[in-house]
Amino acid sequence: LFTAVEPILPSLREDDVAVWVLGGGPYPPGVLALQDLLDAASEELEPEDVWEPQDMNDTCLYIFTSGTTGLPKAARISHLKSIMCLSFYELVGASSRDVVYLALPLYHMAGSLLGIGGCIGIGATCVLKEKFSASQFWDDCRAEGVTVFQYIGELCRYLVNQPPRPGEREHGLRLAVGSGLRPDVWRSFVRRFGDVRVVETYGMTEGNVTLFNYTG
Question: What's the predicted TM-score (pTM) here?
Answer without folding.
Answer: 0.78
